[in-house]
From TrEMBL:
The keyword Cell membrane applies. This is MMPL domain protein. It is found in: Cell membrane. Keywords: Cell membrane, Membrane, Transmembrane, Transmembrane helix. The keyword Cytoplasm does not apply. Residues 186-314 form the SSD domain. It comes from Gordonia bronchialis (strain ATCC 25592 / DSM 43247 / BCRC 13721 / JCM 3198 / KCTC 3076 / NBRC 16047 / NCTC 10667). It is a multi-pass membrane protein. Belongs to the resistance-nodulation-cell division (RND) (TC 2.A.6) family. MmpL subfamily.
Amino acid sequence: MAARPRAIWIGTLIVLLVGAAFAPTFKADGIAATDFFLGSVDSVEGAEIQAAHFDAGSGSPTWIITSQQSAPAVLDATRGIDGVGEATILEKDGTPVVHEGRVAIQATLTDNAESLAAQDTVERIRDAVHPVPGADAQVGGTTAIDLDTRTTAIHDRNLIIPVVLLVVLAILMLLLRSIVAPVLLLATTVLSFATTVGVAALLFNGPFGFPGADPVVPLFAFVFLVALGIDYNIFLMTRVREESIRHGTRDGMIRGLTATGGVITSAGVVLAATFAALAVLPLLFLVQVAFLVAFGVLVDALIVRTLLVPALTLEIGRRIWWPSALARKDTEKPVPQEV
């Protein structure tokens, strides 16, 4: 590695980028509750039988609460929506049930109430009934809860990931007293995660035949992999910095990798095996998280921390520590001369 760092980091980078190129194909927009199980269960079989003979959503109808005077308009708007099989005002003895001037409309969906198609129908219902004058309509029910949960999970995922990266970057800057090294380490961690997601997308969409993933699956995998990857980074680069002060960046990198490489590799293999054990459970969520974390840890420990980061550090040299004093003067420990 010390002789040809450029060839190593370029080759490693190309391999990782090829895997990362498939990351956008990872489907994490949510799945139906009936897809949570990998095996056959009674609840899923019952839902399939119900869908074959009745409106699939009849077991869990969608409810629309609206003002009494606007109920006819809301009812008409609901009945005209694609995906709604039947809609009626809740009645008792032939008379609408009114509570504090509001009535309930029960809408039976043609799709399974726990499916993504049913959630799309609920979105169309909301778009149709909310503009009705004076209705103040609220759409609820099992499907609406699933939709809101999915929407919140996607929002939280898009918010938490950047926040985590900024916090980690700040911690690395304080620890390594540098800007270049933390940015480089964070970039390699993100690349490692993207490669993991890309490879997972190829397998999940292809040989494994998974219908998709819950929105929190990539978030859980990201948190685990960033936490573990940054731990390995800190373990490696703090040792490299200590050695660089005494021996210079080039020798410091080699000495640091020699001292920590075996420990990082062993820890990565053990951790990957531990998470992989979750894959034996017949739940899609756990199988996906298990694969992502196990594979990601191996990529990080065996490739990124062992090849990419050391090779890039050797290529950049003492500038890796900019703007600290180590970047201005690569302090080499003088070799004592024999007398």
